[in-house]
Specification:
InterPro entries: ABC_transp_permease, BCAA_transport_permease. There is one protein chain. The strands form 2 sheets. This protein has a two-stranded antiparallel ribbon with strand order 1-4. The chain has a two-stranded antiparallel ribbon with strand order 2-3. It is mostly helical. It has one domain: ABC transporter involved in vitamin B12 uptake, BtuC (Orthogonal Bundle). It is built from 11 helices and 4 strands; from the N terminus they run H-H-H-H-E-H-E-E-H-H-H-E-H-H-H. Strand 2 and strand 3 form a beta hairpin. Helix 1 packs antiparallel against helix 8, helix 2 crosses helix 8 and helix 2 crosses helix 9. 48% of the residues are buried. It is globular. Helix content is 75%, strand content 4%.
């Protein structure tokens, strides 16, 4: 029983990483109808920013870890802002061109990171408590998994509160339904686009900072690997649905962990593809996906 619980919580940790990347992609698509293939590179760049903060310490303290997470979040936001202003905004209304631009941007960022720090994984030093375990029902759960799950839970609650309780959240939801009408009311939809894209980048940045706590290291290609699964999360959960992304992230993360442990290592990736195909055949719009809806 303790082993099963350990596998489940590890899967929840993996699902939390998927969600942090997929949530930003989902909000961006819901409002802007842009699928950003550069978000994986945003995650990797933010992970390297975290690594640059922590690499000077063999055993960094908790304040340094918090600083590294803040730097990674800000890095994701800044890179996303530049991408939106320089690439996405000039190509507004040209969906194919926007998609290709984000693909190119992602490739350039990965090449720059590989050229600067090499293609290999760089180990990220962590505070001692983060490498320890906490016993839950007899299962030794890594504190890094608990931290990841906890922060992902905070992000879920924060997104829901912002979308449902704040003026800006209402503007975003209205923009999803009819951006032309919102613009006619005198609301600056262009600013909302920028805010949403930056927020998505910051979520990817948080994922990059936390990826090192899950995998123990960061590489230029980590984000691209996670991006594939995050897009699968979007399709299964429903494009533009935050709640759908949350459910799909949990299902995929737990399914991968259970299948890899109890069946065959690596079979979890095959199971994810099977779930994707089944979703497309049975419910092409995804679990909670509905046209012109965000949540």
């Amino acid at each position: 029983m303790s082993t099963f619980l350990l596998i489940i919580i590890s899967g929840l940790g993996l699902g939390s990483l998927y969600f942090l990347l997929a949530a930003g992609l989902s909000v961006i698509f819901g409002l802007m109808r842009v699928l950003s293939f550069a978000h994986g590179a945003f995650l990797s760049a933010s992970g390297f920013a975290s690594w640059l903060v922590l690499r000077s310490f063999e055993a960094p303290s908790t304040p340094w870890l918090l600083l590294a997470l803040v730097v990674s979040v800000l890095t994701g936001g800044v890179v996303a802002y530049l991408a939106e202003v320089l690439l996405i905004r000039p190509l507004k209304g040209k969906e194919l061109e926007q998609l290709l631009a984000t693909v190119g941007l992602g490739m350039v960022l990965v090449a720059l990171m590989a050229g600067s720090w090499g293609p290999d994984e760089h180990l990220i030093p962590r505070p001692a408590w983060l490498t320890d375990t906490t016993s839950i029902a007899g299962a030794p759960i890594s504190n890094s998994r608990l931290l990841l799950i906890g922060l992902a839970g905070v992000v879920v609650v924060g997104i829901q509160l912002i979308l449902s309780r704040t003026r800006y959240g209402l503007i975003i939801r209205a923009g999803v339904e009819n951006s032309a009408m919102v613009s006619a009311l005198g609301i600056n939809v262009k600013r909302a686009f920028t805010v949403v894209f930056v927020a998505g980048g910051m979520l990817a940045g948080l994922g990059g900072g936390l990826a090192g706590t899950y995998y123990g290291g960061i590489s230029p290609f980590l984000g691209d690997g996670m991006l594939i699964f995050s897009f699968i999360v979007l399709i299964i959960g429903g494009l533009g649905s935050i709640n759908g992304a949350l459910i799909a992230s949990v299902v995929l993360g737990v399914s991968q962990s259970v299948a890899n442990y109890y069946i065959l290592n690596g079979i979890g990736d095959v199971l994810v593809v099977v779930l994707l195909v089944a979703t497309l055949l049975v419910r092409p719009q995804g679990l909670l996906g509905q046209k012109e809806r965000l949540v």
